[in-house]
Each structure stands twice: as structure tokens, then as C-alpha cells.
Amino acid sequence: MNERIRVPRVLVIDESGEKLGEFYTEEALALARERGLDLVEVAPMARPPVCRITDFGKLKYEKKKKDAATRRNQAIVELKEIKIRPKTDDHDFDVKERAARRFLEEGDKVKVTVRFRGREMAHREIGEEQSKRFADKLQDVGTIEQPPRMDGRQMVMLLAPLKKKGTPT
Fold first, then answer.
1. Rounded-to-integer distance, Cα 103 and Cα 100, Å
2. CA quadruple 162, 166, 167, 169: dihedral positive or negative?
3. Is the separation of the CB atoms in 82 and 112 below 8 Å?
4. Backbone angles phi, psi at 50, to 5 degrees
5. What confidence tens digit (pLDDT) does each residue in 18-37 have?
6. 51 within 8 A of 40, measured Cβ to Cβ
7. Is residue 166 included in any domain, yes or no?
8. Same domain, 94 and 120
9. Which of 126, 16, 137, 1 is nearest to 60 (CA)?
10. Which of 54, 68, 101, 144 is most open to solvent, judged by the fewest CB atoms within 10 Å of its CB?
């Protein structure tokens, strides 16, 4: 901005967005001062660099507002965890499945963790079966993003919510 622009020639755009042409930096700076505004470099990598005659404070304010609006419209996806065991009974399994269904409907991802203790490590296929059964019950609201895999003494699977119609990808 202003005196910090170090290149000899710049392409100047005025406050209304009209291209004024190529100027020496000093001339462009004088033109901006004459109008009571700042000379701001907007495309430094272009040849010649592009500068705009504008109010720098106003430009900064508008950018801050636009960034805030972008953050406001962003969907925040949380990761919720459901822990089960190879011997988890049907009723407990159903309770955990309902909780996971609610999480997926709210748009959150679900990490399903099957914990193994002691000799259960010898029967990893039971844990994999539990994970697959869990995913099958929730296939109407979510998909498997990461299939079951062992991570130390636990098996981890990641479920993601299904995309709703009309939601941008």
C-alpha cells in the first residue's frame, strides 16, 4: 500500500473499477493522494502489478465482514465416538445405535470403537462383525468413511452422514 509499493510501473484501477492504464508508481501515488484515497496493490504477481485506488480502511473492513460471513455459513462437523465391546448385548447395542443415528442425522461423523480385553484379542472377527452390524443398521443415515481397522487393542471404524438433497457437496 502507498509508499511500500516497490515496483517502478503499475496498472491502475480507479475506485469505480475502471482501468486507468499503466503508470509510474510515483504518478499513481500522486493520483491517489489527489483523490484523498490510498494506492493498494491487489495483484502483486501480475505483470505489471495491479493497484487499486481505494480507501484502505474501508477495504479492510469489508474483507473482515466477508470473512465473518463465510465463517458463519460454514458447517462445523464434529466427531462423536461410540464405544462397544465384542460381547455388547443386543439392548445395549440398540441404545448405542440410536445415539449414533441421532449424531448422524445432526450432521456429525461417528467413530465406532470396539475395545478388546484379554483373550478377546484372539477373536478380532467378532469385533469386525459388530462393526459391520452397526454400519448395516445405520446405512439409511450414514456411510462407512473408513472401514474397521485395528489400532492397538481397539478396532476403529468411521461413519459419515449421508449427503442430503439440495446440500452442496
1. 5
2. positive
3. yes
4. -95, 130
5. 898 898 989 989 988 898 88
6. yes
7. no
8. yes
9. 1
10. 68
Distance of CA 15 to the CA centre of its chain: 33
**Domain residue limits at 10:** 2-71
169 belongs to a structural domain = no
∠ Cα 17 23 25 (to 5°): 100
Cα–Cα distance between 99 and 108 in angstroms, integer?
11
* CB atoms closer than 10 angstroms to residue 103: 23
- Helix (H/G/I), strand (E/B), else coil: 162: coil
Number of domains in the chain: 2
DSSP code, position 43? E
C-alpha cell at 46: 501480475
**Mean pLDDT, rounded, of the chain:** 88
pTM of structure = 0.56
Q: Are 116 and 127 in contact (CB under 8 A)?
A: yes
